[in-house]
Amino acid sequence: MKxxxxxxxxxxxxxxxxxxxxxxxNGAKSVCxxxxxxxxxxxxxxxxxxxxxxxVFKEELTGPEYAERxxxxxAGTNIEVLTGAMVLGxxxxxxxxxxxxxxxxxxxxxxxxxxxxxCRERTRGALGIPGTRPAGVLTAGAAQLYMNIEGYTIGxxxxxxxxxxIGLIMARRLTLEGAEVLGxxxxxxxxxxxxxxxxxxxxxxxxxxxxxxxxxxxxxxKRVEQIVxxxxxxxxxxxxxxxxxxxxxxxxxxxxLIPENELSRQAGVVIDPRTSGPVVxxxxxxxxxxVFASGNVVHVHxxxxxxxxxxxxxGANAAKYVLRAGAESAAKTVQVKNGKGVRYxxxxxxxxxxxxxxxxVFFRSTEIFKDVTISVNSGGxxxxxxxxxxxxxxEMEKIILPKAFLEKIGGELEVxxxxxxxx
Length: 423
Description:
Strands 1, 2, 3, 4, 5, 6 and 19 form a 7-stranded mixed β-sheet that branches. The protein has helices at about 15-25, 65-75, 125, 140-150, 165-175, 195-200, 260-265, 305-325, 405-410, and strands spanning about 5-10, 30-35, 80-85, 85-90, 95-100, 105-115, 120, 135-140, 155-160, 180-185, 210, 215-220, 225-230, 245, 250-255, 255-260, 270, 275-280, 290-295, 335-340, 340-345, 350, 360-365, 370-380, 380-390, 395-400, 410-420. It is globular. Helix content is about 20%, strand content about 35%. α1 links the parallel β1 (about 5-10) and β2. It contains 9 helices and 27 strands. By secondary structure, it is of the alpha/beta class. The longest helix has 20 residues, at about 305-325.
C-alpha cells in the first residue's frame, strides 16, 4: 500500500468498481479501492437472480455475473484493491484512517475520495413493532445472505412485511426452495418495489399482496409462532377490529433501505434529510471539495445499471479534480428544489458553467400518478416540461436538463408534478 493515491474509493460494490475504473480511464495515475468485505462486488454477490445489466450490457445477468464483468476489468489496470479494510474515518483534507488485519492501522492521503458505501436495511427496531423477541425475525437481505451464500433454510411458513424489491425477490426465492409464503403486507396503499417484481415474484407464484396492512404483534417463545396483521388507516394507524392472526415461523422485513453515511457525517459532509445521503453537485461532488459520492450512499436506486452510471460519473470527475489540482470557482450555483408530487431530487445543486452539455436529474414521486406532466420552474416561469403516463414511488424517474436552459435561470429551480391525477 502507498501512503498517497490520486483517487481512493471507499466501497467495492458496483458503484465503487465503476468509479475506480472511470477514475483511471480519465487520467488518475494511482487509484485504490478500500472494501471492508473479503471480496469485491458488494450486495451483488448474494443476488443470484437475473435481471441485472439490461442497460449496461443489453443482456440479463445475475448479480455475481454483473459484478464479475467489472472485477475482471481490474486485472488490466493499475488499480490497487485492499479487502477486509475497515475505514474508520476521513478528514476534510482527504486523510483516510483504515484498519486491516494484515497491515494493521494505516493512514492514507487521497487527492480525491469517492464514497460508495452503499446502503443498509431498516430493522425491526426502527419500526417499533410490539411483541416478543423470538428467533425468526429477519431482514430480507439477511435472509438472502443466509440462503444464497451460506446455504441455510430460514423457515417453512413465512410472512413478509414490506413490498420492497428485496422482499419481493425473496418471496419467489423462498417459494422455489419449498417454503410457503403466506403473504406480503405493505403499510402503504401502493407497492414499494418495481412493477416487474410484483408480476414475476408474486403474481406468477400466486403470492398475495395486501396493501394498507401492517404487523401489529409478534408472538413466540424461542421461535416465531404467530404474528398479528391488521389494516391501517390514512395515518398508518391500526384499524381496530381488523386484526388477523397468522401461524408462521418466520417474519421477513423489507421495509426500506437507508444510505450508509456514518463516515460522511463524521467528516462533516452535508446530508440531505430527504434522501439521507450527501447533498451533491452535478458532478457528484459533495459539500467537501474533492470528496465525491455515488450509488446507494447518495440515494437508493432501483437498478444497478443506474448505480454504475453514477459511479462512472463520480470517478471520472474525481480524476478531473485531481488533474486540475482542486476545485474551480463557479459563477453561480442553482439550487434544485422538490415541488408538489416530488419526494427528492439528485443532484441538489447545479453549477451551470461546469456542465458540459446537460444534467440528469433523478427523483421519486410521492405517490402513484397517471398521465401527468413533470414541470421544471424557475422564478415562477416554466422552463421545461416532460410527459409521463405512469409514475410510482418505487420507480426512480429521470429528466435531462440542457446546459442552455440552466444558463438562463436564476438561483434555483423546482421540479414538480402537475395536472395531478392520483390513483
